[in-house]
TrEMBL record:
Gfo/Idh/MocA-like oxidoreductase N-terminal domain boundaries: 3-122
InterPro entries recorded: Gfo/Idh/MocA-like_OxRdtase_N, Gfo/Idh/MocA_Oxidoreductases, GFO_IDH_MocA-like_dom, NAD(P)-bd_dom_sf
Classification lineage: Bacteria, Pseudomonadati, Pseudomonadota, Alphaproteobacteria, Rhodospirillales
Superkingdom to which the source organism belongs: Bacteria
PANTHER family: BILIVERDIN REDUCTASE A, GFO_IDH_MOCA-LIKE OXIDOREDUCTASE N-TERMINAL DOMAIN-CONTAINING PROTEIN
Stored Pfam families: GFO_IDH_MocA, GFO_IDH_MocA_C3
Coiled coil: none
Single annotated GO MF: nucleotide binding
Descriptive protein name: Oxidoreductase
Species the sequence originates in: Hypericibacter adhaerens
All copies of domain GFO/IDH/MocA-like oxidoreductase, residue ranges: 132-239
Length: 338
């Protein structure tokens, strides 16, 4: 049985603790959180191991640790993950991996030198829709992918340490890296700040890749409705994931266009339309986080590659950096003169 420490018992920590306690491969040896009330809550949730106020102290002082799960604020991820790897333990860190790609590169290199697992909690990849989309793309059922459009909206939750981009986008970008293995050559983004100046709570982003296809996303903490929707356009079929749909959350459409090979100079091309039907695709049931925790145990046991390893987490951070740079550029060019 693997002895594991959990750092952070706020929003996501209780879900992680519940799944770690339930898994036969793990024994939760210690929990760390700066709040005494939250530490007590971990006791009430079934944790009977050591309690720490400080995550760094858990890593440094606890006698036996095979792995550490980090669910603390994003700004602490790098230091805690580095300390865990330097100690010689495996790491599962909440998304995003860190706040800078230079930090991510250092963590990936350190994990490789230490021969330890560095994994990121990109839970979307372990949902039924996320896994099904990855399989469809791998099998080539969509044909050549030409575009991707996504919405992830809700009223809140406003985060104390990151903007809406760094909070919500890692979900969609983790799946995007499964569709496209290159970084975009152009990124445009605009944001709005309704609450805190300089901290966007709505972001629209457009990414263009060298291969010609594009991705467009809308992330928001300011929507009256919860929306989780992704459209992927392919040359052969199109896919729609609507997480709140009542008639099938994942639909594969036999629809699209056919473009004639040539047209007379100066004339508009008129495509032919393919308007076939659609099918609701079967998906794995059960809690995604339980599958992720099980995957973490299996990767530690077998030293196998992970779909959510540090290198993939680093690619997500690089995408976040590109979009953040575009946001900053947009804010600078639209700022009113004083």
């Amino acid at each position: 049985m693997l002895s594991v420490g959990l750092i952070g018992y706020g929003h996501w920590g209780p879900n992680l603790l519940r799944n770690l306690v339930a898994h036969p491969a793990f024994h939760v040896a210690a929990v760390a959180d700066p709040s005494a009330a939250r530490r007590l809550a971990s006791r009430e949730a079934g944790h009977d191991g050591a309690l720490y106020e400080d995550g760094a102290a858990l890593i440094r002082d606890h006698a036996c640790l095979d792995a550490v799960v980090i669910a603390s604020p994003v700004s602490t991820h790098y230091d805690l993950a580095r300390a865990t790897l330097e100690r010689g333990a495996h790491v599962l860190v909440e998304k995003p991996l860190c706040t800078r790609s230079s930090e991510g590169e250092a963590l990936v290199a350190l994990a490789r030198r230490q021969n330890r697992v560095l994994m990121v909690d990109h839970t979307l990849l372990f949902t039924g829709p996320g896994d099904a989309i990855r399989q469809l793309v791998r099998q080539g059922r969509l044909g050549r992918i030409t575009y991707c459009e996504g919405q992830r909206l809700n009223l809140g939750l406003f985060q104390p340490d990151v903007n809406v981009l760094w909070d919500l986008a890692p979900h969609d970008l983790s799946l995007l890296t499964e569709l496209q293995d290159e970084l975009p050559v152009r990124v445009d983004a605009v944001g709005q700040c309704h609450v805190n100046p300089g901290v966007p709570d709505i972001v629209h982003a457009s990414l263009r890749f060298a291969s010609g296809w594009t991705a467009h996303f809308h992330w928001s903490w300011m929507s009256p409705e919860k929306v989780r929707r992704l459209v992927i356009g392919g040359s052969d079929r199109m896919l729609v994931w609507d997480d709140l749909a009542s008639d099938g959350r994942l639909k594969l459409y036999d629809r699209g266009i056919a473009v004639p090979g040539s047209a007379k100079a100066g004339t508009m091309i008129r495509p032919a339309y393919r308007t076939g039907g659609w099918e609701a695709l079967p998906m794995a049931e059960g809690e995604a986080l339980a599958r992720l925790v099980d995957h973490f145990a299996a990767v530690i046991e077998s030293n196998a590659d992970s779909v959510a390893d540090g290198a993939r987490g680093l690619r997500v951070v690089k995408l976040l950096e590109q979009i953040q740079f575009a946001l900053d550029r947009s804010a600078a060019t639209t700022k009113k003169p004083s």
